[in-house]
Amino acid sequence: MEMIKRNSPLWEYLTPEMRQLAVEGERLLSTCSLQGEVDIVDFSYLVFPWGKLYEGFLKKMFLDLQFITPEDYYGNEIRVGKLLSSGFGTKPPHRLSIVKELSSAKVFGENLTKVMKAVWKNSRNMIFHFFPNNIYSIDLPNAKKRIEDTVKCMELVVNRYNSIK
Question: What are the C-alpha distances in Å from 49 to residues 6, 15, 42, 83, 111?
Fold first, then answer.
């Protein structure tokens, strides 16, 4: 089940490691689809490789846009969630936030930046983290939708990036 077309601008943008995550994500999805009805409550595991891919994709994009340094990209310290933080309630944005820069019409604009943040939250943060009061299980159709949303977002970002570089 090919989620990213192999001749697409997105596929060309991805590093070999990111492509491998996509291939493994596609294999997991295909295997799950072939098995049919199974007694699984939480299909988050299907989204994991795509969340990891999205994190790497965003780091590479931020590097290419010169919002982070090569040291940040290759290091273990940079956190995409902090870069995408626009604050919560009355809390100001994280000091490392680049949302204002991303939202500029010269880069991605407000709408695409909102999509990027929503995909980060729904397909990465909510899936990866454990919340004791909300285990946050997702069913198969919801997992597939999150994967599709992640791929679509990356396609939009790459297309926009290619038009401004």
Answer: 17, 14, 15, 21, 25
For residue 69, the tally of other CB atoms under 10 A from its CB is 12
What is the domain partition of the chain in residue ranges? 9-164
- The DSSP code for 44 is G
Whether residue 164 contacts residue 156, with contact meaning beta carbons closer than 8 Å, is answered with: no
On the 0-12 / 13-18 / 19+ scale of CB atoms within 10 A, 60 is: middle
Place of tokens 């492509």: 19
What Å distances lie between residue 20 and 24, 26, 57, 128, 134, CA to CA? Answer: 6, 10, 13, 20, 31
Question: Given pLDDT bands bounded at 50, 70 and 90, which one contains residue 100?
Answer: confident
Residue 132 CB contacts under 8 Å (≥ 6 apart), including other chains: none
Token pair for residue 36? 């049919």
Calpha distance 147→112 (Å, rounded): 17
What pLDDT band is residue 95 in, cutting at 50, 70 and 90? Answer: low
Rounded to two decimals, the pTM is: 0.90
CA triplet 22, 26, 27: central angle to 5 degrees?
120
Q: Tell me the pLDDT tens digit for each residue of 16-54.
A: 999 999 999 999 999 887 666 677 888 999 999 999 999
